[in-house]
């Protein structure tokens, strides 16, 4: 009879340990799930920030490229105007010398 009681007590003890272990694993699973959710939100936020930064950079590069193109065109126009004015000046000087 004592052997049966010892066996029953041992079985009860093992069941309690198993139950406690299952509860701890369940809590760890919930914590892992919560941490996974937090990390997913953080990743989404980081991706969005990175995407916004990339879009802003792209926009600035496009503006800079457009500005460079406009400045290049203005430089060409200024050069052409300078050439025209030099020719006009030469023509005017020649006309003055011939008078």
UniProtKB/TrEMBL annotation:
Residues 1-38, 71-99 are annotated as: Disordered. Residues 25-34, 71-80 have a biased composition (Polar residues). Residues 1-23, 83-99 have a biased composition (Basic and acidic residues). This is Uncharacterized protein.
């Amino acid at each position: 009879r004592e052997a049966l009681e010892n066996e029953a007590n041992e079985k009860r003890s093992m069941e309690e340990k198993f139950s406690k272990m299952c509860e701890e694993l369940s809590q760890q699973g919930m914590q892992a799930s919560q941490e996974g959710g937090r990390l997913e939100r953080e990743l989404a936020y980081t991706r969005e920030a990175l995407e916004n930064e990339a879009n802003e950079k792209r926009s600035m590069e496009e503006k800079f490229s457009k500005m460079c193109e406009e400045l290049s065109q203005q430089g060409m126009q200024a050069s052409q105007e300078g050439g025209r004015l030099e020719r006009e000046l030469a023509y005017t000087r020649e006309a003055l010398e011939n008078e």
